[in-house]
Amino acid sequence: MIRFESVSYRYPRQHGAALRQFTWQVENGAFALVAGPSGSGKSTLIRCLNGLIPHFHGGAFGGRLTIFGSDTREQPPSR
């Protein structure tokens, strides 16, 4: 299961947030499609899922993102 709980993220040296209070849950075995116009936060969302945010990109991360119960802030991207 993937669970975003009020996730917010602002890239370094940017004034506005790329994600604001984003809440979403994907159940085990579900199929999810991420779609939207350019600049809507799709790549930021994926970078959160694979752990590049906040480990690699820095910036300001808030809220909680768990994948199969593990908090992405507590696991390295390689995991």
Brief characterization of the structure:
This protein has 79 residues and is an alpha+beta fold. It has helices at residues 42-49, 52-55; strands spanning 2-10, 19-26, 60-67, 70-71.
Can you put this structure into words, describing what you see?
- This protein is an alpha+beta fold.
- 15% of the residues lie in helices and 34% in strands.
- It has two helices and four strands; from the N terminus they run ββααββ.
- It has a four-stranded antiparallel beta sheet with strand order 2-1-3-4, covered by helices on one side.
- β1 and β2 form a beta hairpin.
- The radius of gyration is 12 Å and the shape is globular.
- The mean pLDDT is 93.
Rg calc: 12 Å
The average pLDDT is: 93
What structural class do you assign from the helix and strand content?
alpha+beta
Widest sheet: strand ordering: 2-1-3-4
Question: Treating each run of at least 4 consecutive H or I residues as one helix, how many helices?
Answer: 2
How many strands appear in the DSSP assignment?
4
Structure keywords:
globular; 4-stranded antiparallel sheet; alpha+beta; 4 strands; 2 helices
Topology overview:
Blueprint: E1 2-10, E2 19-26, H1 42-49, H2 52-55, E3 60-67, E4 70-71
Antiparallel strand pairs: 1-2, 1-3, 3-4
